[in-house]
From TrEMBL:
Active-site positions on this chain: C84 (nucleophile), H178 (charge relay system), E180 (charge relay system)
Role this protein plays: Catalyzes the hydrolysis of glutamine to glutamate and ammonia as part of the biosynthesis of pyridoxal 5'-phosphate. The resulting ammonia molecule is channeled to the active site of PdxS.
Originating organism: Streptomyces hiroshimensis
EC number from the UniProt entry: 4.3.3.6, 3.5.1.2
Record's signal peptide: none
Catalytic activity: L-glutamine + H2O = L-glutamate + NH4(+); aldehydo-D-ribose 5-phosphate + D-glyceraldehyde 3-phosphate + L-glutamine = pyridoxal 5'-phosphate + L-glutamate + phosphate + 3 H2O + H(+)
Pathway(s) served: Cofactor biosynthesis; pyridoxal 5'-phosphate biosynthesis
Highest taxon, organism lineage: Bacteria
CDD domains tied to this protein: GATase1_PB
Protein name: Pyridoxal 5'-phosphate synthase subunit PdxT
UniProt family annotation: Belongs to the glutaminase PdxT/SNO family.
InterPro entries: Class_I_gatase-like, PdxT/SNO, PdxT/SNO_CS
Length: 199
């Protein structure tokens, strides 16, 4: 694919703020579509895992027969971007998860669920993110996780208040916060570029 191509980017649509990501991806020049089934997953060049509730998402991934197909695509190098609950799904190791909670893995990091506190402790903050030009992004943190530690292959791309809130490892990107809720599509554009580069 040429650098100016329009990749097809799915949004995992089991649960969470799917619509906002579809809109942000379309604004970032991707062909965006919801993904619920393995056949739909097979048709996308990259995937966003939205915010929501990671325990529910994990359960539904099992029910919909998506857990293994997702793990396989991530292992095979498909570009993936997870926000908040999506970050949790991409963690190789999870703290404060539910006992039977599954993650897909993909980034050598330890993520602590609900680390920034409860729903009423949600907040917004400016976050400087490596690779995103034009100044800080507005981070919306909703019962957000943070990253306790990363392995050698993972790169910390943003911190807030001394905590790691964005990480990239190869084709996998994760943020604690929700750029899809701000109308600023730079992080999605950055991810769509990652998808193009992987073609
Ligand atoms: N905004 C969010 O995605 C919240 C994540 C939620 N706390 C979870 O555990 O999945």
């Amino acid at each position: 694919m040429s650098p100016l191509s329009t990749p097809t980017v799915g949004v995992l649509a089991l649960q969470g703020d799917v619509r906002e990501h579809l809109i942000a991806l379309a604004a970032a020049d991707a062909l965006a579509r919801p993904v619920r089934r393995p056949e739909e997953l097979a048709e996308v060049d990259g995937l966003v895992i939205p915010g929501g509730e990671s325990t529910t998402m994990s359960k539904l991934a099992v029910v919909f027969g998506m857990l293994e197909p997702l793990r396989e695509r991530v292992r095979a190098g498909m570009p993936v971007y997870g926000t908040c609950a999506g970050m949790i799904m991409l963690a190789d190791k999870l703290l404060d998860g539910r006992e039977d909670q599954e993650t897909l893995g993909g980034i050598d990091m330890i993520v602590r669920r609900n680390a920034f506190g409860r729903q009423n402790e949600s907040f917004e903050a400016s976050v400087e993110m490596a690779g995103i030009e034009g100044g800080p992004v507005e981070g919306v943190f909703i019962r957000a996780p943070w990253v306790e530690s990363v392995g050698a292959a993972a790169e910390v791309v943003a911190t807030y208040d001394g905590h790691t809130v964005a990480v990239r490892q190869g084709n996998v990107l994760a943020t604690s916060f929700h750029p899809e809720l701000t109308g600023d599509h730079r992080v999605h554009a950055y991810f769509v570029d990652m998808v193009r580069a992987a073609q």
